[in-house]
Design goal:
alpha/beta, three-stranded parallel beta sheet, 3 helices
Length: 78
C-alpha cells in the first residue's frame, strides 16, 4: 500500500542538519508517510549516517550535485 504523503529531502553535504531533520520526522504522530532522501553527491558521510541511523529512509544517490530542482524531480520518480 502506498503511503499518503512522501517527504522528499534533497541533500548536499548536509550531515549537520540530518539528525534534527530525520529525528523530527521519526517522532511524528502521523505515520502514513515515507521519507525519500536524494543525495546530490555528498562527501560528508551523509549517506552513511542515514544508512546507519535511519534505515527506513529511502535513499537515492546521485553521483554529482544536480541541484535542488533536479533532486526533487528524481525524488518524485520514487
Amino acid at each position: 500500500m502506498q503511503p499518503l504523503v512522501s517527504v522528499i529531502i534533497v541533500n548536499w553535504n548536509g550531515l549537520s542538519h540530518l539528525p534534527d531533520c530525520l529525528g523530527s520526522l521519526s517522532q511524528q504522530t502521523f505515520r502514513d508517510f515515507e521519507v525519500i532522501m536524494v543525495d546530490n553527491g555528498s562527501v560528508d558521510d551523509s549517506v552513511a549516517f542515514v544508512e546507519q541511523h535511519h534505515p527506513w529512509v529511502k535513499l537515492v544517490r546521485l553521483d554529482e550535485n544536480k541541484g535542488f530542482a533536479a533532486g526533487n524531480n528524481r525524488g518524485l520518480k520514487q
